[in-house]
Amino acid sequence: MLFNSFEFLVFLPIVFLLYWFVFKKLKTQNILVVVASYLFYGWWDWRFLILIAFTTLCSYASGILLERQEGHRHIQRWISAANIVLNLIILCLFKYFNFFSENLAYIFRWLGFELDWVTLNILLPVGISFYTFQALSYTIDVYRNKIKPTHDIVAFFAFISFFPQLVAGPIERATNLLPQFEKPRTFDYTAAVDGMRQILWGLFKKIVVADTCAAAANQIFANYQTLDSLNLTWGAFLFTFQIYGDFSGYSDIAIGTAKLFGVSLQRNFNYPYFSRDIAEFWRRWHISLTTWFRDYIYIPLGGSRCSKWKSFRNTMIIFLVSGLWHGANWTFICWGAFHALLFLPLLLMEKNRKYKDIVAKNKPLPSFKEIGQIIITFLLVMIGWVIFRAENIKDACQYIFYMFTKWEPSSLGYGGRCVQYILIMIVIEWIQRRQMHGLEISRVKYPIIRWGLYCAIFYYIFYYSNSIQTFIYFQF
To answer: Is the pTM value of this prediction over 0.85?
Structure first.
């Protein structure tokens, strides 16, 4: 079920009313959350439910077993490792088996051996990487004694399958989300109203910005060999805002929807295109995944508190794994390597933690230096998105090569109307960069200004509602 669909428009208010006015007790509310979440997820394919239920049961059981073996650290290590390996095998089987099989056959062919390689004709479950990582974090945190294992299986099922963030995040930690399903929740009118505003802003970014950019970007990437540098650069620019509007829009809708049910999800985007270097960009982009890799892979490897060589190694591993997490394609791995190469000089000069606060914090506009830093960072990120978007490495290299070599008199042939929507989003987010989301405007003095903005956004969403597209990150 898509957030930007008629089905969800009917689904959400029904679940909301049942949640607060019919199922008022904690246990029944959690049961409703699980049932609603499984309906939401099974809307794509009911077979997906078997997999997520199996993952949930295994992770729940691992917590119980870890508790029973308290004091036997070596046994706990084996229990934790067994559940982690099992979850990763499931993830790799559905997401990476064909990729590794084909590349292994290619290597043997290069060595002079012909193999009849095997592929699996299986459907990739929507959002499998998201809920698998969420389940893994629970087992790891229980093993590290950061959280007590829960005996409330309904609460645990609700934690893994909570429908607002189930298929595209944020990737929640058990330390934050699980306790919220173990204690009574009360309706917070202020939070609910703010949630509605955040949903509205997320829909604007998805339907008005991302989907209109997608229509033009898809045409440009499909015909890149026949286009000149200006149009190719424009296509990369459009995809840069498409993926941001699409993914951050989903996160806004998810966080806002959770607020309607008295649940708080972590922030996933913090205006990343206002970043002054690549390190700052990664502190602001897909925060839940970045911090997951930091806490569960980077720091255990030694983080940056080791030799320079090991710090470089750890950084490269993180970025390569992050690329592979996004999909079974060499373009994603190269995209991760590209960002690692941009990040390493900052690490070498110990400037990777230089920018931790928002740009122009106490000023209405950035300085000329900050403008230059933002533009350079944005352009580097944009080149990276070309690698990310391309079908294969050859297409990525050709596209980037043509971007810089096919300069000739021309005009933009696609997506001219996207400019106004991108500018609206940029201006609003710049003004609101100190806030949690673009429509956090409850303190605006005059209600007519707030409602005028709401009505304008409603109009744009309704106008473009016929060109609904799925969310990009569903495939991950």
So the answer is: yes
